[in-house]
Write a structure and sequence with these properties.
Layout (H helix, E strand, L loop, with lengths): L10 E2 L7 E4 L5 E7 L2 E6 L8 E8 L2 E16 L5 E9 L5 H6 L5
Antiparallel strand pairs: 1-3, 2-5, 3-4, 4-7, 5-6, 6-7
Length: 107
Amino acid sequence: MSANRRRWPRVPAEALKGVKVWLSSGGEVRLLDLSLGGARFTSRERLLPGLGMSLRFKTPEGDQDARGRVVHSKLVKLADGSLGYEVGMVFDEPLSGPLAAQTGGTK
């Protein structure tokens, strides 16, 4: 078994209070989990590894963008039965502000 190489723990989307997320380009996503250093989500859009992108988070305290790149993407069946992608994204910089506080970091 390999050791967990993650720098920060993942927080399940259900544990995040009032957080909604979408692609900065406007595409809808469903957040699966979030850490200070990245996110895992599903999307109808095909996002290939290496792609630079941004996510926009809406929180009760306001909107926040996180820029980064796709590190993995696989074809999956979405909740509605259609096909989409499960995407892992690493952020260029660790989250800050309200999102950091919800993922175990500092505000």
